Amino acid sequence: MTVPEHLNNLKGSRLSFELLPPVKGNSINSIFATLDKLMEFSPPYINITYHREELTYVTKNGVKQPAIVHKRPGTVSIAAAIKGKYKVDVVPHIICGGFSQHETEDALIDLDFLGIKNLLALRGDADKRLGKFKPNPEGHQYAADLVSQIMNMNKGIYLEKYVENPSPTNFSVGVAGYPEKHKESPSLETDMLHLKQKVDAGAEYIVTQMFFDNRVYFEFVKRCRDLGITVPIIPGLKPIAVKAHHEMLPKTFGLTIPTELSKQAKKCRTNKDVWQLGVEWAIAQSKELLANGAPLIHLYTMSRAENIVAIAKSIA
Questions:
Q1: C-beta of residue 130 within 8 angstroms of C-beta of residue 68
Q2: CA within 20 to 30 Å of 14's CA: 89, 136, 235, 264, which one?
Q3: 3-315 is a CATH 3.20.20.220 domain
Q4: Judging by DSSP bridges, how do beta strands 15-19 and 63-69 pair with one another?
Q5: Separation CA 153–CA 117 (nearest Å)
Q6: What is the pLDDT of residues 148-205, one digit of tens each?
Q7: CA distance 234 to 294
C-alpha cells in the first residue's frame, strides 16, 4: 500500500520509524538488529534515509589528503532487503543534492523494478564543503522540481525523449515540512510557499521536521490548511538522548527547545537521566498529538532502538 492508503486504513499501530543506512563497511545486520526490536509494534512502513557525498581526509604516504566519499550508501538495496525480510512497506528517501536528473531517473527505475512505490522526496542537506546547498549542475535545486520529475515518470515521461512505448511508474511521494521554517529560508511565509509548491507538484503527504513543542505542530497544520494544503501532515519526533542534544539540535536544525524541557535537561546529571527525560517527553508529545488528530507519529530512530522501544510501548 501507499502511505496515504495506510493512513486511511490504520487499525493498529500509529507509529512509523526512520532508519539510517549503516556507515560504509558495516553490515546490514545492524539494521536488522534494530528492526527486530521495532517490528513488534507493527509499523505500516519504514523510512530509510539517503545521504549525499561528504568531504573526508585519508592518509596517503603519511600525508592527509581530501577525498569525497559516500559514508552511508545503500539506501535502495536496504529498502529492498527490509521489504523482503519483514514484508513491510518501505519509504526510501530520494534527494536532489549530489545527483543529476539522469542519475535520479536511473535510481527511480531501480526502485520501480523492485516494486517499491513509496518515496520521500527531499532537497537534501547542504554541502559541508561549501557550507550551503549547491545542486549538481545537471540536477535539481528544489524538492518541488524533484517531485515534478517523479510525477512525469508516473505519466510515462522520461528524460530521454526517444524512449519508445514508455511504461509509467506509480510512485506515491511525500515531502518534508518545517513547522519552525527551514533554517535557510528567509521567512516563514517563504517557507510555506515552497511547501505548497511541493504539494502542488504532486506530493501526497507531509512529514515534519522534529519539534519539541506540540503548539508548533498545531500552528503549522493551521497555516497549511489556511494556505489550501489539504494533504495529511505527519508529525516527526526525535527524543533527546544525550546532554549535547540540548545545544546541538537547535544549532543544526534551526529549531527551538521549550523552556520547560530546557530546564529539566539542565537538571540532569548524566546522559542516562537525559535519555529518560527524552523518552518521557516524547511519550507525552505523542499522546497529545494523537489525541488531537495527528494521523501517525513518525519516530526518527537514528538506527537506535532502545529509547524508541520505550516510547512505542507507551503509545502503541
A1: no
A2: 264
A3: yes
A4: unpaired
A5: 12
A6: 999 999 999 999 887 888 999 999 999 999 999 998 999 999 999 999 999 999 999 9
A7: 7
Task: For residues 291 and 235, give the distance between their C-alpha atoms in angstroms, rounded to a whole number.
Answer: 13
Residue 39 CA to residue 263 CA, distance in Å, equals 34
Cα separation, 116 vs 50, whole angstroms: 15
Query: What is the C-alpha to C-alpha distance for residues 188 and 79, in angstroms, rounded to an integer?
Result: 34
Integer Cα distance of 37 and 31 in angstroms: 10
C-alpha cell at 135: 545542486
Burial of 10 (0-12, 13-18, 19+ CB in 10 A): exposed
Name the DSSP letter for residue 41: G
d(CA 226, CA 168): 34
* CA 289 remoteness from chain centre: 19
Q: In sequence order, what are the residues at sequence separation of 6 or more whose Cβ sits closer than 8 angstroms to the Cβ of residue 112?
A: 153, 169, 170, 171
